[in-house]
Amino acid sequence: MTASRADLVAALRRDLPAEHSLHLDLGSCSLECRTSESSLRDELARYFSSFTVAPGPADIRITVHEGAAPDWGLSYVEKAPDPGKTRIKEEYLDIEGGRVVRKRLTGMVFVFGQGENACVGPCAANANQVVNFINNRHIEFLLNQGCLLGHASGVARDGAGLCLAGFSGMGKSTLALHLMSRGLSFVSNDRMLVER
User: Fold this and answer.
1) I need a surface site. Which of 6, 111, 152, 171 has the fewest CB within 10 A?
2) Spatial contact of 193 and 142, defined as CB atoms under 8 Å apart
3) Is the pTM of this model over 0.85?
4) Do 35 and 64 contact (CB within 8 A), yes or no?
5) Domain boundaries in the chain?
6) Tens of pLDDT along 20-39?
């Protein structure tokens, strides 16, 4: 099957309408997340409570569809495991206007690109993956604005920050915790975005 991101997202929105809306102000952009289930919208609103705002224009639109992921007949490519890992957790396919990612363990499917994004599957049972999807769309937006992304822990004090970058298991988070015990504030234990 040859499909575009626009076609797949439109089909999901038609077949599994997402009518429960959540608007977020993420500082650098605004985001609208619509869910097909009100309970999932409420759970996301609790998680993002510091960022919820009244409805308005959005830079990023995400729809979240509870239900069986459709079989689009796509020929996915396995994503190689990260260094030190052996299990293949996901597969993907680049399509016109974006990418489709299927999580093997949960059956969740994510379609994204050009500010139009959707996920489908057992979303309520995997709300953490929906949160990660929202966060990653924000990261994508910032990267498109010229930011740089690093795998890093970060701490700050008095308006100055320190990024501790390195591979998994190298002690970044542990060092950040030690620095926090000396009065520095937590920024991140996984990813840091730096403006040029």
Assistant:
1) 171
2) yes
3) yes
4) yes
5) 5-144, 148-194
6) 999 999 998 999 999 999 99
